[in-house]
Write a structure and sequence with these properties.
By secondary structure, this protein is α/β, with parallel strands linked by helices. The protein has 19 helices and 32 strands. The protein has 5 domains: 9-118, PriA, 3(prime) DNA-binding domain (GIY-YIG endonuclease); 121-180; 187-380, Rossmann fold (3-Layer(aba) Sandwich), CATH 3.40.50.300; 391-432 and 491-620, 3-Layer(aba) Sandwich (Rossmann fold), CATH 3.40.50.300; 637-722, Alpha-Beta Plaits. The structure holds zinc ion (2 copies). The site of one zinc ion has 8 residues, from loops.
């Protein structure tokens, strides 16, 4: 029986006080009254509440029937979004640990964790029995007069504002008066490429692969982190897939996390060749696509996605894979700051399942766990390519060259073109040139809101800030001295494109960077054109080199290898090395010999001797030793706190306040307050305090009490970054 229809809150009585984490970047939780008409309370369900002048969504964290001490007048919860909690006990325990570790505010934590469910209002409902609805004089009867489906959004719009519509809908569903309309699962949709080759025979595993697969599958049903350490082209994917096959055959589920949306089309294709129920998750999906995934979580075999996919509560998750585990994109920088890889490890621990992290150039964090025996190491030492094609690499000193491309790289490009092979040119800088300089007075236009030079985008006739997105027309005269004497400094992909068009008119090439690849469609189109040989060359930024597999590429040229190597960040060397190794690993992946040409103005820098996958292990060991000597991460735990405000003195004040509270932490050293290396971003001044804990036992947990004793201020934003990856 449908309980008496919920009526307006005027006749309500309250049965409890509930503590709610409101989905907003606010500190702490808020107390509300729970009205009886919303039924039985549960922790972990989402509710709608009045907040300020509007309404907000939040999650019930706790409740009590005892009145709180203070005599506040509490407002009532308006509506409930969920009948039962979206996350089970295990995942809630996991989230609690995550929140404590990342010093997250409850609202931020829960809104990140339940982001996948946020597009709730696009759900559609249909009446099963209009006449019964009429008889029971349900407030929904007018809306559902026929059996046509209506979206929740419409229902909410048309119903009386005082009705708890979502609760009413779920009650009516429970009593089989209406039902939710289910979308087809994603895997029934035809692929955009249309070339589905179902159940393609999977290749025979090599001995090394076989060993790795058996190690993983014999560790199922218990917590075990693995580091799959294998050079590019060594067949890491095949290890993941074969292990996944075993998990799925047992009726369980697999989650694969990849660092970039751009990698998902290729993965989806590979997975669909092998598995039936494959689901995809990333931030650029439509509300409908998200709903499709959500409604079919139970029947999903394997879910592939970017970091937010980690939050989807797969009910029978039995294996987590984190591919390219060293990639900095696994770190979420907006809202709650977290590392999806590290959260994945905590989740695997809570669920008691194995997690496999794969890389050719592991992060030093993971490498340390291997050397200290916490992670089990799995090795894939060799490339699988049929004749193990050799790669010749050379370093060109650009101090003696003119233009963006050296003589040897130019000759190599010509030869590659003549042989009908393909090439990749890597230049990690978008735009025409990274700065415009006045040759009369030396002035370089900067962004008015950031401490950053403006990049020249010649074709658009604009100067753009790559930090905040600010754009302006290229000025005619220098604003400092009034002369007409601008000269572009250095080169970006746009300038390289111009140069190639002039010098190698026969070369069919495309640019592959964020300015050109603006949609998923463009990305797939360009990659397919390259794959099918309609293009001879791709020139691009780091977007191009992550994880793609181009079997016909025999030449890789790095236009300016010096970018990023001397950034004021202790991880600059490690990052640069990972990127270069990844770039050069794109050459010779098929059965032809490969050639790598690296252009630099500092050929004697030590890191240049390290760009060789066979040296990966010794490189990591050396770097680890250095970090240990300096007591840097991963040997110490750091927490970076960034205070940002429109007014510099306010950011300084609050940072000072925080830093003095931290002085009570014994064993933790404090640097700052000091300006961040990027002192201004989008008009905000940024001040940082860096806390270092060489014991790794105090931070971040000891900060909890400081966090709660800090008064909140409206004009200064405080961002906690535990295990910071970006020190700028
Ligand atoms: Zn000037
Ligand atoms: Zn800017």
């Amino acid at each position: 029986m449908l309980s008496p229809a919920p009526t307006a809150p005027t006749t309500e009585h309250h049965v409890a006080y509930v503590e709610i984490a409101v989905f907003a970047p606010l500190a702490g939780t808020f107390t509300y009254l729970w009205p009886a008409f919303l039924g039985k309370i549960a922790t972990g369900i989402r509710v709608q509440i009045p907040f300020g002048k509007g309404k907000r969504i939040g999650v019930v964290i706790n409740y009590t029937t005892a009145a709180p001490d203070c005599k506040n007048r509490y407002k009532s919860v308006l509506d409930r979004l969920d009948d039962t909690p979206l996350l089970d006990q295990t995942r809630r325990a996991w989230l609690k640990r995550v929140g404590r570790y990342y010093l997250a505010q409850p609202g931020e934590l829960w809104s990140s964790a339940l982001g996948w469910a946020s597009q709730n209002d696009t759900r559609r409902f249909r009446c099963l029995d209009p006449s019964t609805l009429q008889q029971k004089s349900s407030p929904l009867a007018d809306l559902f007069q026929t059996r046509a489906a209506i979206s929740l959004k419409k229902v909410i719009e048309r119903c009386d504002d005082t009705l708890a519509v979502r609760h009413l809908i779920s009650q009516s569903c429970a009593h089989k008066l209406i039902e939710e309309v289910s979308h087809e699962p994603l895997w029934l949709k035809k692929q955009s490429t249309g070339q589905e080759s179902e159940n393609r025979q999977s290749p025979e595993a090599t001995d090394a692969q076989h060993k790795a697969i058996t190690s993983i599958t014999s560790a199922l049903k218990k917590f075990q982190p693995f580091l799959l350490f294998g050079c590019t082209g060594s067949g890491k994917t095949e290890v993941y897939l074969k292990a996944a096959q075993e998990v799925i055959a047992a009726g369980d589920q697999v989650l694969i996390l990849v660092p970039e949306i751009g990698l998902t089309p290729l993965w989806l294709m590979r997975l669909r060749e092998r598995f039936k129920q494959v689901a995809l998750w990333h931030s650029a999906m439509t509300a409908k696509e998200r709903l499709q995934v959500r409604q079919h979580l139970h029947d999903t075999d394997i879910l592939i996605g970017t970091r937010s996919a980690l939050f989807l509560p797969l009910p029978r998750l039995a294996l987590i894979v984190v591919d390219e585990e060293h990639d900095a994109s696994f770190k979420q920088q907006e809202g709650m700051t977290y590392s999806a890889r590290d959260m994945g490890i905590l989740l695997a621990q809570e669920l008691n399942i194995p997690i496999v992290m794969g890389s050719a150039t592991p992060s030093l964090e993971s490498w340390r766990q291997v050397t200290s025996g916490v992670y089990q190491r799995l090795n894939l030492p060799q490339r699988i390519a049929s004749n193990n094609a050799p790669i010749a690499s050379s370093i060109i000193d650009m101090r003696e060259e003119e233009g963006p491309v050296s003589k040897s790289l130019f000759t190599a490009l010509q030869e590659t073109l003549a042989n009908r092979d393909q090439s990749i040119l890597f230049l990690n800088r978008r735009g025409y040139s990274p700065a415009l300089q006045c040759t009369a007075c030396g002035d370089v236009p900067e962004c008015h809101a950031c401490s950053m030079r403006l990049t020249l985008h010649r074709r658009a006739g604009q100067l753009r800030c790559h930090s905040c997105g600010f754009r302006r027309r290229v000025p005619n005269t220098c604003e400092s001295c009034g002369e007409v004497a601008f000269m572009p400094l250095g080169e970006g992909t746009e300038k390289l494109e111009e140069w190639l068009k002039e010098k190698l008119p026969d070369l069919r090439f495309a640019r592959f960077d964020r300015d050109v690849i603006t949609s998923h469609n463009r990305l797939e189109k360009t990659l397919t054109a390259f794959e099918q040989g309609e293009l001879d060359c791709l020139i691009g930024t780091q977007m191009l080199v992550k994880g793609h597999d181009f079997p016909n590429v025999t030449l890789v040229g790095v236009i300016n290898a010096d970018l990023g190597i001397s950034m004021p960040d202790f991880r600059a060397g490690e990052r640069w090395w990972q990127q270069m190794t990844q770039v050069t690993g794109r050459a010779g992946r098929g059965d032809k010999a490969g050639q790598v040409i690296i252009q630099t103005r500092m050929p004697d820098a030590e890191w240049f001797q390290r760009i060789d996958e066979s040296l990966a292990e010794s490189t990591m060991n050396d770097e680890l030793q250095l970090r240990e000597m300096l007591s840097f991460p991963p040997f110490a735990r750091w927490v970076r706190i960034v205070f940002s405000a429109r007014k510099l003195e306010r950011a300084n004040q609050v940072a000072q306040q925080y830093a003095s509270l931290c002085e009570s932490l014994e064993g933790v050293s404090i640097s700052g307050p000091m300006p961040c290396p990027m002192e201004r971003v989008a008009g905000q001044y940024r001040i940082e305090v860096l806390l270092r804990d060489p014991s790794r036992k105090l931070l971040p947990w000891k900060l909890e009490s400081i966090q709660s004793s800090m008064p909140t201020s409206r004009d200064v934003r405080i961002r906690m970054d535990v295990d910071p990856q970006d020190m700028m």
